[in-house]
Fold ATP-dependent RNA helicase.
Amino acid sequence: MSDDDGMLLNFSTIEDGGSGFKPSSAKVTGGRWRDRRKMKMMMEGRPKKKRKLKQNAATGTADVENNSGSDPNMDAATNEKESTSEKAVEFKNSGKSNNVNSSNNQVVSSLFTSNREISTAVNTNERDESAEQAPSNAPLSGDSFEALGIKESLLTHLKEKMKIQKPTSIQKLVLSHLLSQWKGQDDDLFINAQTGSGKTLAYLLPIFAKILGMKIRVDRKSGCFALIVAPTRELASQIYSVALTISNCCHYLVPCLLIGGERKKSEKARLRKGCNFIVGTPGRVLDHLQNTKVVREQFSQSLRYVVLDEGDKLMELGFEETITQILSILHDFQLDNSIFPPLPSRIVHVLCSATLKGGVKKLGDVALQNYKLLSNRQMEGSSTASEVPDQLLQKIAIVPPKLRLVTLAGSLDEITKSHKGSESTRRTMVFLSCSDSVEFHYETFSSSDEHHRNLVGDTVRLLTKGNKILPSFTGNSDPGTIFYKLHGSLSQPMRSATLDHFSREDEASRGKHKIMFCTDVASRGLDLPHVGTVIEIDPPFSTEDHLHRIGRTARAGQSGEALLFLLPGEEEGYLNCIKGFHPKGWKLLKFDKDIIQPVFQSMSVSKSDREGDSKKQEDSWDSNVTTWHLNVERRVLEDQILKGIAVKGFTSHIRAYATHIGAEKQYFNVKFLHLGHLAKSFALRERPKSLAQQSSRDGAKQTVQSKKDTAKMDTKDKMLKMAKLAVKQSASEFNY
Ligand SMILES: Nc1ncnc2c1ncn2[C@@H]1O[C@H](COP(=O)(O)OP(=O)(O)OP(=O)(O)O)[C@@H](O)[C@H]1O
């Protein structure tokens, strides 16, 4: 990554600090600095901020007052100081916070004060909820696979064993193209279709149909007919398992999986036995092409199809060079068209992507020749498929940083409650910016005291009776919830086992709410069954990621909903950026009235250090929110391991935030973040300054000079420096 790429633009400061406030250009000189500052503020039209801390004698709680004209965009330094002293007051008095009543105009907790104003009052992209939205990625009722050329054993297998009755619109387009009798079957294809529209079967089915339709005896020794390359191991494994399922109707055709993290020796052994389909990740495929003679032998005469799945992700992860090398090796093979005459006379390249942005077009130029663009929206008169499925209900909440954790708890609790009593399995995915943040959220929600049981290593946890982490969990009822964590720092077998458990539909899963905290490693192409809700607590790193993340729900015509959290301020501008993806609109939620209040007003949350108290007091919803948050903070304070995880989660999150693409830095810029408030959403009471020092102690070795430099910087600059360093070292560290 070069120093001047789009990422680094993310660090540039804008003149007004992003607040919309334009400083006066006039210079004030002479006199005392206080007078100069006062004069400058007057010239800039900024009112002098009065702040008073009042100790409430009756309750022992603090009332933090700001003058009503306070600037919600006050600069970070002022904000930070304020936040710290608020915290000091709050926690000094936290023992009595349950007594506080919001009805007498007292501010119950600093959770609800000093938050930046939310400016999005009107939903400019309102979804018409009264209108029935027909699924846009569902199978087409009026078409059939027979009519498209799928025959005999493959057709029976598809309908009876795989329960796939009708093609989706993209399958119809691709099948009619690749199975056509005319010369066009040799054209390269660019498949652009919505998430969950069945792209995998769209390219696998015609390849299988073509091989089976040759009426030439083939077996695993006949050579490899298709190479499918996918950007992540999870996706490659998934495509491999679809190929394996199809091959159940023709056992003599054998697929093979080549992915990093697996033993190369055993892969070589499998390749030596022979295979007809190779599915793999780019690095490992290239490695075998360069170093395993038998692979080249397998491809040399039979290879007719090269599929690049999730093309935009392949580019984003920097695989262009690897793909170019793979293609150049493959193109050197001399095909013998006399052995399999019914197959295309050249290698047909297929590129798949749900989006057309990013480098995917460039990959098209590299990999495809005279390609044909097939898009499932073409049928409905739209040019591309970069839109969310029509039936997906998108919700958006603008959530102040301090309230992110508790709003997430409210959202998860609501889903859990609404699922109670159901026989089916409910699945929710929560997307976070980096592995460390996944660890923090997983630990926070899944392990309260001893009330949990590890099911798969420590990545899958079943909550047991007595767990009270979500407001509706009571001590004597079964929470019916399983938590999962998935990110790239876990070993490959662990990642596979976790996904396998999450996807399982067995007796033990019935009626359970499965909640997975994950990074973008789970955003691409993964086909997990019946994901009801996707929550993006951290904003996506690009609009394409947004589309792919929420595309884990509402697949193949099913219903689903997604919830995106944005911070008040610049992030609200992101709504305009994603509007084009949501032609059916979205629902704008108020984080307090619509999410946390309904959840926290219906139950009493008791303080974790007063569990034994027999008399429960009916508290207002905001007091319950405060108590819930204090309980988590107390756990972090008392448990040094959890505290370490929280600190790492926070610092890595800030670093990850700095990697938002340059084009979107106007919405996501570290400079806009209020670090003190954000720390609160990691249940941290310490000021970011001490966190930055702590993390640099824990982290990379610093030179004496860089230590001196760091000491001179303020907290925000330190975070920026850490972010730049981290990006230089490895972008994948926090993305995956
Ligand atoms: N014709 C069909 N009828 C019913 N279900 C189907 C059909 N085709 C595919 N599916 C199912 O739809 C789901 C989504 O398929 P697939 O993973 O191929 O989608 P995709 O378009 O590749 O999505 P993404 O862009 O997210 O990778 C799978 O569970 C698959 O079994």
Summary: Confidence is low (pLDDT under 50) at residues 1-31, 48-109, 698-708, 727-736. Residues 693-736 form one domain. The pocket of adenosine-5'-triphosphate is lined by residues 139, 164, 166-168, 171, 193, 195-201, 354, 525, 527, 551, 555-556 (CB under 6 Å). DSSP finds 26 helices and 18 strands in the chain.
